[in-house]
Design brief:
- It is built from eight helices and no strands.
- It has 152 residues and is an all-alpha fold.
- Helix 2 crosses helix 3, helix 2 runs parallel beside helix 5 and helix 5 runs antiparallel to helix 6.
Amino acid sequence: MKTNEKEVFRLTSDEAEYIRDLIIRNEYIIRAEVRLVLRERFEQIGDDCISEIYLLACKKIAVLKKHAKPDAWITLASKKVAQNMARKHDTFLKNSTDDEITDASVEDNIFEDALYNIWMEDGSIDKLLNTLTPHEREIYDLIYKKRLSWKE
């Protein structure tokens, strides 16, 4: 993940402890998700990937502390970060000129996808979706489930 070297994260001691506990509590699951995605690349970039997960958690501390299921978020975010790192790694190996695979928007997508998947597991979103008209529900399905653009 490309970060600005001057970018500094200031966490309180409570926030730092919260992130550390979250990562430690879920270390086995994080490593399993990362290893599953990276496979043979795990030995090469696994530690970098786990560092990215830690950094992402630090950036999203305000939301994580309020989130109902931070453990589920970290698990899903681990998978998404690993997938992104694998794409970056493969692109780098192919000597592609497109070395800007990830940016803040990809990072935000990882976070939003994780939240969305957790809400889907909770059934919370189904309650909201039941209030939509059939046409609104069809549009929702096309955009958010099938990931079509507004134009499509």
